[in-house]
## 1
Amino acid sequence: MKIVSIFADRLFAFQYEGSEENELDRLLELWSNPGFLYAFLTKNRQDLPKDLDWRSMAEQLLDSVDMLQDLLIQIHENPEISLDQFFVPLVNLESAPKVLSLRKRRISYLRLYALRIDSDCFVITGGTIKLTHLMQERIHTTEELYKLQKARDYLKSKGVFDNDSFFEFLSE
């Protein structure tokens, strides 16, 4: 596993072994690919909202990708915008920030998953198109939950618990 900077000292992403891209770049490319969207939505048609056909859903997902990219550009250009507001706890019941807490960003049906390292510092672990209520209901969302937990365990094993330990780990 490798961690790459998306924008300095604030947002990072895992680049998993065997992958040429970090998770953010991989997901943005994948979610912008009409062929992928068609295959995904066809395979998961039983989960589509009843009022949407796959074409409407694909258009909505493409719009969501554009919104996600715009939000990331705004955050990058304006350090006053906190990533703590961008990523919310994965489990809605989390009341106080925890060390390496599991986080998500939801834009329509798109989910971007990350670990909170410290205030305004996050590492993206992956993402998916989520059409069901619980992550455990489908294999592709369960895999993302597993990646979140595996990434957290990896960082814990490297002694990461705050910004200082994270940047020390990155400089090794």
## 2
Amino acid sequence: MNENTDTPARQALDALAVDTENTAALDTLAQSDVLVPVPEDANPEATADPAVVALPILEQPGGDPIVPVFTSEGELAGVLPSVSRYRLVPLGALASQWPTEELSLSIDPGSAHPLTLTSEGVRTLLART
């Protein structure tokens, strides 16, 4: 698989690694599509509805649960090689539907410049669209 991993979302993450207050990078990220792995136990009816996104929740040892999302198939395969299905979702749309409980969002976990946001950060920082 030969793919370009230098997507606008990836560039925004790289910029945010240098300056977490970079509003242009936050805007780009909020408007970018991300790959959301489809959980193995997801309800098939829910996965067919384009308005509903089943969130894959990973338990962190000693930390809050996280939802991993990815900027490319390469990033997804590097962290979750057994995942065979995903949905392409605008990151801002996730923010508008984010659950209220303490659930963090991790963008490209395991990459050189991952970004993890608390549930409040998801709703406030990414709801920029």
## 3
Amino acid sequence: MKQISNYPKVARDMFFAQLNWTFGFLGVMLVIHIIKIVLALIQGGDIDSFYNAMFVVTNIYMLVIGIISIYFLPYYVEHGVTRKDYFKGTLIAFGGLAITIPFITYMISFVERVILNAMTSISIREPDLNSVILEVDSDIVGDIVQAIILTPYVDPQSHWGLSIAIFSLNIFVYYLLGWLISTSFYRFSTVNGIVSIFIALVVLMLVDTLLRLSLDLPILNTLSGLNVLPLGVTLLVLLLLISLTLWSVRSVTKKVRIKM
């Protein structure tokens, strides 16, 4: 008798559970942003767009919920869901989340621009987030920090579709790396878990650099040697890195012992 696949239910449950968290996160960020707008009205000056503000902080948010995602596994296994279905369902759920967040953020930012342009004299700053890496002293620690905080950016005012796609890919990778770290700590020792953090940092820096190369953006000095790679090779290596990380998570979760 063929076993029933439960991954669609897992995907639906995890997507809506994490979407509820995301609405709370978006709500808090929107309140903070509105406060900044009010202060700008009172004191004068300009502000960053909601899109740019979310672009910077959403990476950390996705990393955190990626770390949390492993704790769904015992619940599902306890209710008869296979580890394979958990993996597939989680992958679909955070893929959907990675698409939904940038789209919602863009729509809020679009409404923000319309209202501010029509009703106030506040101007929206358009910082070049990609050029920041050229303004900071280059060393390995600085490059790691910049790779974590400032992911490759495309201005939504010039290429909104590409901008949303890059935003989605960035936060997809952060969720994936959080998932990798949490599964390593869950299955292995603390030492191996710490090793997974270093692996995640290496993957993050490589993905960041390869994506920047693909978009013809400034790259981190530490990995400037990759500048010689042609576009086809760059995209292939980027795909292989993400695929290898997914394979690693699947390999770990496939044999993990459930802690009840």
## 4
Amino acid sequence: MNHIKTYNCLAVDTPSGKVIIEGPISPEHLASYEFHTGLKAFRPSPQQHEALIEIAGLDEGRIIIARTKDTIIGYVTYVYPDPMERWSHGNMENLLELGAIEVISDYRNYKIGKSLLRVSMMDDSMEDYIIITTEYYWHWDLKGTGLSVWDYRKVMEKMMNAGGLEYMATDDPEISSHPANCLMVRIGSRVSMESVQEFDRIRFQNRFMY
């Protein structure tokens, strides 16, 4: 599959100043920016910066960033699912996972996450993909936000809806292990029925087991 990436950019005015949302960006472009130390939800910020540069260099990898001048204050990643997860079992070239989205705490009330998702979907080639994200409550910053599991779930769903992702059922054991966990999906307008049917087979692998 030819992974076409078309750059888009959006300026967002916030009480803390203008934020630029842009991408997908190249590894070189990404490396030229400072990476805010508050971006540490998944690993220490220097290592996370390196991980994003690596993802940006992958054929299918996409990184959209939010920045204030030369400092990255948020990002979203798109990459093939982890080979250890069920979502990779069909070897679907047109299935991408929204693997991580993070915004520093000072900017979380400015809808930066929604803007990152909207800019992601400005690229027409995203209509060729099935985009998924798996949401697990143990990854959520419940302590930092003061939200309950269910309120955080509502916030996550609204944010993902901004990018056209919607809730879909699955019998994946990890997602099914807690009712707050969920699978959210966006099926591009040019995705074939065959791909949708293959994705459905991946979503439900135990449908004939009683």
